[in-house]
Amino acid sequence: MTTEQDECMGSVKGQLAKLFEVSLKVTVPNEPDVEPLVAACNGKFGDYQCNNAMGLWSKIKGKGAQFRGPPAVGEAIKNNLPTSEMIESCFVAGPGFVNVVLSKNWMAKSIQKMLVEGIDKWAPLLPVKTAVVDFSSPNIAKEMHVGHLRSTIIGDTLARMLEFSKVKVLRRNHVGDWGTQFGMLIEFLFEKFPNFEDATETAIGDLQAFYKASKQRFDADPAFKERAQQAVVRLQGGEDKYRRAWAQICEISRNEFRKVYQRLRVHLEEKGESFYNPYIPGVIEALTKQGLVEESKGARVIFIEGINIPLIVVKRDGGFNYASTDLAALWYRLNEEKAEWIIYLTDVGQQKHFDLFFKAAKRAGWLPHGDSSYPKATHVGFGLVLGEDGKRFRTRNTEVVRLVDLLDEAKSRSKDALIERGKGEEWTEEEIESTAEAVGYGAVKYADLKNNRLTNYTFNFDQMLNDKGNTAVYLLYAHARICSIIRRSGKDVEELKNKGTLVLGHKDERDLGLHLLQFAEVVEEACTNLLPNVLCDYLYNLSEIFSKFYSNPECKVIGSDMETSRVLLCEATAVVMRKCFSLLGITPIYKI
Ligand code: ARG
């Protein structure tokens, strides 16, 4: 029998919760819906604990229960726990905590099983099948700034974690490719390049400068302004020449964005604002029929209880805006794409917009009230990127940061560091290039991801490229070192996985094993709360716990009689580290 459940065990925490669920049903049969509360405790009180006894006691105490206080409830929960090879021992402590010590044998066997069957078996189980992650989403002809870089990096990681958890993820680039500014850009394009179709990226050069120049023209010359306004109408009316000019401008921008995505190896599917444009009138009409849309100061708006400023869905001039597009896109994602979880990544500055727009969708009955049921829409906000001076990040004397330059600099600095370490003589040019890339881009990503996303973070090359401390460089090197230990053992790991035996005899081995086994619940937490830094913390701790094991003379790997088992433990650590890197969008390195 191989059902989905059998294939994926879920986390250790989840497996224990299932056992406690059984026990709770027996212990308090009159309280059928008690959720088991299980948490890792990683201390002298065991590995996990179940915290239900205290809360249960206050629920049942008046009702003639047979227990005499929370510790007795805990005792009963313990006694009713089904036998399981997972558990070595169980005891009640303090006011009624039921502590669980995992079986070392079971732990060792589970890790070895993961080595044989692959880490995908450790994927957490999530309650959604399809999710939209709306991320990156820069605006055509405008700068793709560091805010978009954060959106790209964090969004990609969230998408990767959900994909690993078997969720079908629609990676959406909701680019700003529609709106009145296009009239001005198109008119300017016609003026500058009468044969506009020949106006390639190289001819136009810097699209942002082009944008600025056209804006100047727009502000200075009323006749131009007039033409620009007509151009919008003709574009929106679908006139061929205008559509082609628009497509061309989009294409030039797209080529710029692509350079960033290529370097970061981020995959996105573009469905820009223009895509949803045809759906807007129908959506607004439906909302109007429901009585949600009102007239206010010439605009059409949706009011939300308790909020003074309404959501404007049709502007005074009859045009649609950011919010109308977002409503249509949400409608499309829910009804056409059947997404159950729609996740939006932008800086926290847009929080109000999303709050208002989600509330409007709830009023319309598109989303359930409350945030615990599906379908669900979530705004994942993040803080600013700051420069050394504590102000919004800018490079040198230019106004905006060219993201491509930023990434190139990270790579070239990593390359210099490799040359300095003497790798120039040792490695091929190709190895240097690919390692410099992995380290440089990995450093930029990790420096962003390791912070709680809501806080601002300071962009600092020296810090992120330091090979000590909580950096990608340190972690990538740590991984490479583990690989070299395995190589030096001269053992064929594939053979060991099947023929050797992993045991967790020493405390440091057991600690490492326990941390490895907690991988699934950490990914689950990072997904549920949309917090990549949780995974970064886990990865950093993993390398620290590994170091403690490896540097302990009692846990000697090569040449000890526990060599086989310890090489397997090294391999398991390397496998989990690599999965963390892969979820964080970082390419691992194998030697240093
Ligand atoms: N283009 C927007 C910006 O640069 C971000 C779009 C986010 N996605 C959305 N569905 N509103 O700020």
From TrEMBL:
Ranges for domain Arginyl tRNA synthetase N-terminal: 14-102
Enzyme kind, highest EC tier: ligase
Catalytic activity: tRNA(Arg) + L-arginine + ATP = L-arginyl-tRNA(Arg) + AMP + diphosphate
Keyword Ligase in annotation: yes
Stretches that traverse the bilayer: none
Keyword Protein biosynthesis: yes
Domain DALR anticodon binding: 475-592
Keywords: Aminoacyl-tRNA synthetase, ATP-binding, Ligase, Nucleotide-binding, Protein biosynthesis
Listed Gene3D superfamilies: Arginyl tRNA synthetase N-terminal domain (3.30.1360.70), HUPs (3.40.50.620), Isoleucyl-tRNA Synthetase, Domain 1 (1.10.730.10)
EC number: 6.1.1.19
UniProt xrefs under InterPro entries: aa-tRNA-synth_I_CS, Arg-tRNA-ligase, Arg-tRNA-synth_N, Arg-tRNA-synth_N_sf, ArgRS_core, DALR_anticod-bd, Rossmann-like_a/b/a_fold, tRNAsynth_Ia_anticodon-bd
Pfam families (UniProt xref): Arg_tRNA_synt_N, DALR_1, tRNA-synt_1d
Matches recorded under SUPFAM superfamilies: Anticodon-binding domain of a subclass of class I aminoacyl-tRNA synthetases, Arginyl-tRNA synthetase (ArgRS), N-terminal 'additional' domain, Nucleotidylyl transferase
Family annotation (PANTHER family): ARGININE--TRNA LIGASE, CYTOPLASMIC, ARGINYL-TRNA SYNTHETASE
Family as reported in the entry's similarity comment: Belongs to the class-I aminoacyl-tRNA synthetase family.
NCBIfam families assigned to the protein according to its UniProt record, in alphabetical order: argS
Stated name of the protein: arginine--tRNA ligase
